[in-house]
Amino acid sequence: MLKTLRDLFFPGDAASPEESPRSVNAAVAILLMEVARADFDVADDELAIIRQAMVDDFGMTATEADDLVDHAAREVDDSTGFFPFVRVLNDRLGPAERSRVIEMLWEVAYADAGKHHLEESIIRQIAELLYVPHSEFVRARVRAEEAGATD
To answer: I want to staple 119 with a disulfide (CB 3.0 to 4.6 A). Which of 38, 104, 105, 132 is the partner?
Structure first.
């Protein structure tokens, strides 16, 4: 566990290529959990979206996704900000992948019957830290909103 945290906070320190995806997974899961907790009520629908994102976007098993969501919840309890997690994503993801992360954040926000203004604020902050252009931020929101309406 200590190695995972070290790799998450210090991604350039002797991380092997096989370890890189794991810290990206953790960083995304933690940011998704931040959005889920923004309105002070983590709904089961939000947790289901986070788990499904880990399975669909990162090829994890359901058990691995559950473990990572539990880890993310503990990390959010202890974290003091987004920057360490955003840094991992900026270092390891391209523009299209970072835009996908923003869309995933919106999917969590819309999971529990509509977005809360605090969720939107956090997503906006993360998008700016990930250098996602405003136009892509809006497109990601629309895609997530439309996907939520069809489910």
So the answer is: 38
